[in-house]
Amino acid sequence: MQNAGIVGYGCYIPRYRIKVEEIAKHYGKNAEEIKRGLMLEEKSVPAKDEDSATIAVEAAKNALKRAEHVAELHKKISAVYVGSESHPYAVKPTATIVAEALGLSNNYTAADTEFACKAGTASLQMAMGLCLSNIAEYALAIGVDTSQAAKGDALEYSAAAGGGAFIIGTKRNEFVAEILHTLSFSTDTPDFWRRSTQLTPKHAGRFTGEPAYFKHVATAAKMIMEKYGYKPEDFNYVIFHQPNGKFPLRVAKKLGFKEEQIKPGFIVPKLGNTYSGNIPLSLNAVLDIAAENELILAVSYGSGAGSDAFIIKTTPLLKEVQSKTTKALQYLNENKIYLSYAEYLQHMEMIH
Amino acid sequence: MFRSSVPLRWRRYAERYRLIGNKCKKCGNVHYPKVEICEKCGSKELEEYKLKPYGKLLSFSEVYSPTEEFSAYAPYCVGIIQLEEGPKILAMIADVKKEDLKIGMKLKACFRKLYKDGNNGVIHYGLKFTPYF
Amino acid sequence: MKALAAIIGIGITKFGEHWNKGIKELLAEAQLKALEDSGISEKDIQQIYVANMCADSLSGQLHLGSIASQILGINVPSYRVEAACASGGVAINAAINALRHKDIVLVSGVEKMTDVDTAKVTTALMGAGNEEWEEFHGATFPALYALMANAYMHEFGFAEEKFREILSKIAVKNHKHASKNPFAQFPREITLQQANNASIVAYPLRLFDCSPISDGAAALVLCKPELAKKFCDNPVYVVASAVATDTLALAERESLTSLKATRLAANDALNQAGISIKDINVFEVHDCFTIAELIAMEDLGIAERGKASKLIEEEQTYYDASIPINPSGGLKAFGHAVGATGIKQAVELTKQLRNEAYCQVENAEFALSHNVGGSGGTAAVHIYARRLL
């Protein structure tokens, strides 16, 4: 039976950071309490001249660098899907900006997607569908955000910028990782939303926990394992959507996963929540260090609400491409530029 | 008036987004931006050519008194950069203060917003350069 | 030595902020003063050239040729000439060419820059550069010359502090000259310390390295050289008129520290006049920024490449020293009403050769004006003689 697989993957995180202390200081709040409560130290901030389109382009370029084993790939990609909560335009696709910047041939279909923080994984499923149905030979899926948060809202500590890109194909000998299965669980649950005329989102407080995040993530994880006959201990890595540090650790424990399975993909404490870039970036971090024939369970969460679960197996080709370009943890930990709160506000003003 | 023109910027997307210049078929000289006549040998036989996104910093300045379009970015750095294949260009250098710059350092191209036409107009993208770590 | 034209009348307005005068009033003042100085009637003018750069972007006004002739109430051919900041020098070159067919030509220059805010003027001035590849990438005019200054510092191995001193000395000199000139925008001296510590405009250039935003106009009445003595006793002769062009964008030049257009125009002019640069007694060079004056000294052949700073340190370019440069105060202290500057240089040098200047150079026989467009896309060099030998 034919599966879709990742032939190239990449990511990008802007250089700027702001520490929890710096934001807390502005509001006269206790930084240590917030850091403990959210398990967050600092988050990424876009440069004044960056937006979801520019981040998507850099991530996609990195994905192409890891897919050099496929000749003339940029001429063969015929579907582009970009998922984000911060597309630069409400009408005018980010996907075509990315395609133009990459120099794809013009025989491509494209669309932007939105499903809160899981727009990126939704794009991934669409890319898989186009490939498995032989409509596209290769497809590009990106999840990216310059996340917004209202001033004074708790989200301000975590809303971060970054994105990940995946090039999907169906020729097994080109895979760096094979997507064995995908399954989703969705309901109409308005836990977090942004009206079209508003610049920042709102949420329903504690309602975003049990009936929203935990219900969908846990259900999708359990359902995919049950359907395809897996147990938690079968996986080398597990990645859950990371809106903060607490939620993914709690759901992992509840489902029976161990700390060493979660740790490699657990990048939120120094990154923040990159919304649609969340799972794409964590998956990048895991792929950057995984060995061959290892199993990954990745479960995204998008408010509104739904979870996309993926069971992914790495191939021997993976280790040959990991070092072809900048890795997720390099973007995360190197060449950081720290901002004051005033500078941070200037940066955030420019994302609209 | 022209600052809001869409076609004026759109026709340069390939050149701006992907460093597409042209190369002389006769003597091999690479040009960026595109030329109509080879600057070295005068031949009109030119073909499109994609330049590599790396360059060397020949000079830089930090601008404190910007034009209207870039007032939100000031102070910012601009530089004259010699691309690997030879052509020299002027570009904004992103994510740096002048203390981060040294003549002769290696830079690489990055895709950034160049100019946003207010809250209602088109966002124009292009390449800036950053230090090559 | 062959004369190409004779200057028989000059007129100039004060450069500065003229709240009560628009383009027409400024142009009229200069044109009428020039006519009066020449002693001829406006009805004798057979052709007009008006140099201007920004009237369309700052005042919405093109078609200045028609305004210029209307001021005089005549219907002769009248052309607006534009070559960015070299508009004036290029207009003189065009007017001289016209003298092959016409006897008397009026050439003027005007600029009205203070009706809009600084950011708009900064934007408009970048029309002198490459809009798509310089302005759209964040370059400003000061930034272009700052890139030259930084490259110069690096190429010739200057320490930052030493280079800062050199540039400041140029500004101090030009202000000293302007302090004696009632037509100058800033008729007052500045100190070395003021220039060293002024706010940064575009690193490494500071406030006093940069010529100001100015309103102003200037005009010349030119006639065929053989007719000069009919009109005045002390005509000044133009013995060389040269214009050269180079790439529009700074990045595309062969060098960041030398303007090929200046070198070509200067060589052409000296050949036309049959003299060497050492024969020139007084210069008006295009100091849109202090670094431009330094580089011009080398491109004109006054000093060797990388060595002009020595003359500055030794203060040899004051009006009463060995190589007088910018006795008017230059663009920096006299002001830079862009389209008028090339004409103003000719006005100042005519005064020098008539012995009527404020910072009078003793026994001046030959003078040279150097006018540059943009960051060096055009250069116009003219040589003037007190008498024909």
Mean pLDDT of chain A: 97
Query: What order do the helices and strands of chain C follow?
Result: EHEHHEHEHHHHEEEHEHEHHHHEE
Which of globular, elongated, flat, extended, rod-shaped describes the shape of chain A?
globular
- Based on the structure, what is the oligomeric state of the protein chains? heterotrimer
The CATH homology group name of the largest domain in chain C:
Thiolase/Chalcone synthase
Strand-pairing-aware structural class of chain C: alpha/beta
Which consecutive residue ranges of chain C, at least 5 long each, have pLDDT under 50? none
Distance between the termini of chain A: 45 Å
Give a verbal description of the structure.
Chain C: This is Thiolase domain-containing protein. Chain C: Keywords: Isoprene biosynthesis. The complex is a heterotrimer of chains A (352), B (133) and C (389). Chain A has 352 residues and is of the alpha/beta class. Chain A has helices at 20-27, 31-38, 52-65, 73-76, 94-102, 119-132, 209-228, 246-255, 259-262, 268-271, 278-289, 318-321, 328-333, 341-349; strands at 4-12, 16-19, 42-45, 77-83, 109-113, 138-146, 161-169, 177-189, 192-193, 202-203, 237-240, 295-299, 304-314, 337-338. Chain A has 2 domains: 5-176 and 324-343, 3-Layer(aba) Sandwich (Peroxisomal Thiolase, Chain A, domain 1), CATH 3.40.47.10; 181-319, Peroxisomal Thiolase, Chain A, domain 1. Chain A contains 14 helices and 14 strands. Chain B has 133 residues and is mostly beta strands. Chain C is built from 14 helices and 11 strands. The longest helix of chain C is centred in the middle third of the chain and has 19 residues, at 160-178. Chains in contact: A-B, B-C.
Q: What's the short story on this structure?
A:
Chain A: Residues 225-313 form the Beta-ketoacyl-[acyl-carrier-protein] synthase III C-terminal domain. The complex is a heterotrimer of chains A (352), B (133) and C (389). By secondary structure, chain A is of the alpha/beta class.
